[in-house]
Amino acid sequence: MRAGLAERILAPVITGLVLLAVFQLVASAGLISPSFSSPAAIALAGARAVITVEFWSALGVTLSAWLIAVVIAVLLGAVLGVIIGSVPVLRELTRPVIELLRPIPSVALIPLVVLTIGTQSPSGIFLAVFAAFWQVLVSAIDGARSVDSVARDTALTYRFSPLQRFWWVQLPTAMPSLTTGLRLATSTALILVVTAEIIIGVPGLGQQISLSRSGAAPDRMYASILVIGLLGLALNLLVAGIERLLLRNHPRSRTGGRR
Amino acid sequence: MLIVDHISKAYAGGPPVVADYTFEVADGEFFTVVGPSGAGKTTALRCLSGLMPVSSGSIIFDDVPVTRPLREIAVVFQDYARSLFPWYSVARNVELPLRASGVGRAEARARVLEALDSVGLAGDAGKHPWQLSGGMQQRVAIARAIAYRPRLLIMDEPFASVDAQTRADLEDLLLRVRQETRMTVLFVTHDVDEAVYLSDRVAIVTRAPSRIAEIVPIGLPVPRDQISTKELPEFGHLRGHVFGRIRAMVHGTELV
Amino acid sequence: MRRLRPVLLGLAGLIVAALTWVIGTTAAQNVFFPTPQTVLSRAAGYWTSPEGRANFASSLGNLLLGLLLAAVIGVAAGLVIGSVRLLSLAVSPWVEFARSIPSTALIPVAFLIFGLGDSMKLFLITLGSLWPILLNTIAGLRGIDQTLLDTAAVYRLSLGSRIRHVIVPAVAPRIATGIRIAIPISLILVVTSELVGSSEGIGFVIVDAQATFKLVDMWSGIVLLGLLGFLLTWLFGLLERRLLRWTPAQREPS
Fold first, then answer.
1. How far is A110 from C202, CA to CA, in rounded Å?
2. Confidence of residue A4 (pLDDT cuts 50, 70, 90)
3. Is C154 close to B130, i.e. CB distance below 8 A?
4. Residue of A203, A224, B41, B223 with fewest CB within 10 Å of its CB?
5. pLDDT of C212 higher than 80
6. Domain range annotation of chain A
7. Which CA distances in Å does A63 have to A18, A50, A132, A180, A194?
8. How far is the C-alpha of B32 from the C-alpha of B34, rounded, in Å?
9. What is the pLDDT of residue A1?
């Protein structure tokens, strides 16, 4: 019972059009508060914004903060995670500490970060790194644990050096978990970067959102939110593509998707 | 009891998987459909169970057309592990169809225990499926069908996924249960030995587009026994005949 | 002795971490990083006081209520959408899109529609926690084994029976996963909504402490949040394991 391609595309498109129509009607009739904009107004505001330099520089700022945060979090998390994961003693040593530190919501640190780091990009980057790091770390530890014993024994019989073992056995085995961690980290990092921009006023798209709100320009506010949503979607797709690329030769060993 | 009249089945837009099956199953008979893989046996079975409509032809059970699952028909699937509800105990799994068809609690309990006893799992009533071996799980599925007291039991390659010794035990269990309850059995398998050993008649079907090549009466003495029956020359002849036809099909020397 | 090792090592790790915290902050003498002793004693004092308890209750209450609403809406909508293939095809891409909007980006929207106060917080928490639950419910429904459904059909289980005995238990593990993922999200949203202009809640305590430069109070809030997050996830994990003991994923190798 496979859905035809036509179904897969038509159904969502039609739904989207219907939703748009409903929103348009509701907004025009003024049923909810007057600040509930119509899709038409939002689209217009969006179009107007897209041609400004302001918009693109804000987008660029958000993106670069995100990228920096992801790179740092992934490097730190992956390296530490693989090391910890491959040594049972280290794993057991660090486990409770990680379990206690992990649930601290990054946003709880916002006031502290404002006082210590300030209200510019580095704050957002720090918060994003803090949140994303744990996800990469935990995924990397998970991945490094599950080294196939046959593969490991083969490597030992052929007397691979520790470095060779790492590159040829441990890293590939850990790949699926690492890419899961990457996927989680990239979306978390975006959320934190944007949150910092909204709440603290760090420059970027998020800041645009709060400026639009306080500047009583709800249309621009919604437009900015949608742009961020699209950005998030685009980044998700990008990372999913990278994941597929990295895992193209990997047997499907996962027991069921986590979302 | 069951009249299958020129049924065919094709999936949307594709060629027919089953081109023409025509046969009748008498009350109390053990009727087996045997054929190579890809012969559309499972497809036909789903139609016979009422799970899927046929593309043409008709299936009549006791003068009632089979277009949806009937009360008098129970099915045991090949994939026993996935047909048992993992969140319920063995007893609850067996009990469920009974309660769903309106049997009272007390009587249901009694029938459950009786059925589990007849498959030798009386002591495991409280366990959950994942605690049992493959063979035991299949026995639970059989117990569930027995407790339901159908007039016709349809089985889709039920013993294909168990080891040889367990299979032999399950085959004998099935024969014994059928003798006690006088159920009619419609059995599907790709294993020729099993088909000949268990049945009163064997229908040999071809690869897709599948039709019935031949219906072979099995005149072996009853009760059957894994050793003595299989030592009979008659068993060897029958088995050889059926096997030979199937092999000819598979290797393309059989005219379809 | 083997079983004991992880416990002992874990304990050792905790002790080392705690000592590092104590020594580090004592040595640094940095006003922004008070010593754990100061923080913990202030936390114990404040959070047991009536004012502290009220703030804690406010946060916890909003969080749990928001999660509950998200669960009810998410499961109900997910069951409906997931059972009609066309519906799930039509709706899923939009749900995915809605999900990629960082929930915190909706704060200004919530603010605009609801103003300040509990309804704004609730709206935000519910909306943000909704997506993982909804998506997981839909996926759970799509993933129900066909053989189970065939068995239910063959034994002629009524729709009500099918829902009760087959569908709900089969979807339950996925729903639980969705809720588990939603917990940290709801925590983040509670805090964030309280940071942006609220007069109660743990987040308010933290941001108020920031404004009045009371670093110790700020840290006591951070510690409490970490503890709360840990407890919520841990307790839910216990509940999940208890209710879903039969889950095949925990038993059979795939």
1. 13
2. low
3. no
4. B223
5. yes
6. 39-246
7. 32, 16, 15, 21, 10
8. 6
9. 45
C96 inside 8 A of chain B by CB: no
Instruction: State the nearest Cα–Cα gap between B197 and chain C, in angstroms.
Output: 27
Nearest to C123 by CA among C192, C53, C54, C177: C192
- Rounded Cα distance between C171 and A101, Å, is 31
Whether C94 has its CB under 8 Å from any CB of chain A: the answer is yes
CATH number of C39-248: 1.10.3720.10
Question: How many Å lie between the alpha carbon of C254 and the closest alpha carbon of chain A?
Answer: 6
Average pLDDT over residues A153-173: 76
Q: CB A231: neighbour CB atoms within 10 A? A: 20
Amino acid present at A221: M
Taking the domains of chain C in order of start, what are their residue ranges?
39-248
Give the minimum alpha-carbon distance from A51 to chain C in angstroms, rounded to a whole number.
Answer: 22
Q: Using the beta-carbon criterion (under 8 Å), do A111 and C195 form an inter-chain contact? A: yes
Residue B255 has pLDDT above 70, yes or no: no
Neighbouring C-beta atoms of residue B11, cutoff 10 Å:
12
Q: Band the pLDDT of A259: cuts 50, 70, 90.
A: very low
Q: CATH for A39-246, among 1.10.3720.10, 1.20.1740.10, 3.20.20.70, 3.50.50.60?
A: 1.10.3720.10
Contact pairs from chain B to chain C, CB under 8 Å: 61
- Neighbouring chains to A with at least 3 Cβ pairs closer than 8 Å: C
Distance CA B171, CA B166 (A): 9
The domain locations on chain B are: 1-72+155-256, 85-149
Contacts of C250 in chain A (CB under 8 A): none
For residue C154, list chain B residues with Cβ-Cβ distance below 8 A: 49-51, 69, 73-75
Name the pTM for this structure: 0.80
Backbone angles phi, psi at C155, to 5 degrees: -90, 10
pLDDT value at A2 more than 60: no
Rounded-to-integer distance, Cα C70 and Cα C78, Å: 11
Kindly report the nearest CA distance between residue C196 and chain A, in angstroms.
7
| pLDDT tens digits, B58-95 | 999 988 998 889 888 999 988 877 889 988 999 999 99
Q: Which residues of B touch C148 (CB under 8 A)?
A: 82-83, 85
User: Cβ separation of C157 and B69 shorter than 8 Å?
Assistant: no
Q: Does C164 touch chain B (CB under 8 A)?
A: no
Q: Which residue has the tokens 């430069």?
A: C213
A4 near C CB under 8 A: no
Residues 6+ apart with CB under 8 A from B120: B139, B173
For B1-72+155-256, which CATH class?
A: alpha beta
C251 touches chain B (CB under 8 A): yes
Q: Tell me what ipTM this predicted complex has.
A: 0.81
Least confident segment among A46-50, A72-76, C19-23: A46-50
Using the Cβ of B69 and the Cβ atoms of chain C, whether some distance falls under 8 Å is answered with yes
